[in-house]
Amino acid sequence: MTMQNQPTRSVYRTNRAKLLTADAAPVSGITVQLASPEVIEMCGAAGLDFVWIDAEHGSFDLQTAVEMFRAADAQGITPLFRVPSLDAASIMRALDGGAMGVIVPNVSSAEQARAAVSFARYRADGVPGLRGACPSTRAARYLTDDWDGFVRWSNGHTTVWALIETLAGVENIDAILAVDGLDAIALGPFDLSHELGLRGQPFHPEVTGLLDRVVERANHHRVPVVASLFAAHPDGLAAERDHWLKRGVRIFSVGSDRALLSRSLRERAAVLAAAPGHAR
């Protein structure tokens, strides 16, 4: 019995980030840096659309990341993988392991954006992809019945985001946005502020001015933008959200697991430290 004649088992999953983006509805996710499938499950239970699994700043390997992808699939939340760098092997292995998209840091030129897209796509139907073909991967359910159908689905539903976090990326933004197959750009205000010598000041007017220009150009090219929200409390978070909504942004990362846990622990510790008679 040939592979095409075997009973069909669905390998197709829903990329909530990509579908909701197409509908121009706000999409929300969170950056996950802790090596914990349980954190992924919590994010899904909270009703978020995607998890931004961060292998650039997180301390985990691909095997752990795959367990996090499994947790995301079980919860119906879309797993996106921030690769450590623009590297073909990192992108292909993450996608084969079940990531539904990649986030590529430090994209500063059209050539880099084009490479990222090609590493995430199979060569098919005129798409000049460079992704290696193997039907026995986890993404293809370990020996997909319909390889051609899987290739077409993967090419149409795999997300590629480019992080714009350098001055060169800002300067070359029009060329980057013109790259065919780039699904969105993500703003990196913290790294950009660092490069500008404004360390730790992502809301400095010089930083926000550059990012406003990036967003304006993205709107012109009709490429979605991903903005990270940094505020510690709901009112501030809503203000940041509204700032970007007015500029046409519809995809948001609402924080990181490390920051949220650390902040909550400090707030609780501070309450007890302020209690009468407390002594260290």
Automatic annotation (TrEMBL):
GO cellular component: cytoplasm
Key words of the record: Lyase, Metal-binding
GO terms assigned for molecular function: aldehyde-lyase activity; metal ion binding
InterPro entries in alphabetical order: Aldolase/citrate-lyase_domain, HpcH-HpaI_aldolase, Pyrv/PenolPyrv_kinase-like_dom, Pyrv_kinase-like_dom_sf
Domain HpcH/HpaI aldolase/citrate lyase as annotated: residue spans: 32-261
Pfam families for the chain: HpcH_HpaI
Domain of life: Bacteria
Membership in a protein family: Belongs to the HpcH/HpaI aldolase family.
UniProt protein name: 4-hydroxy-2-oxoheptanedioate aldolase
Source organism per UniProt: Paraburkholderia caballeronis
Lineage: Bacteria, Pseudomonadati, Pseudomonadota, Betaproteobacteria, Burkholderiales
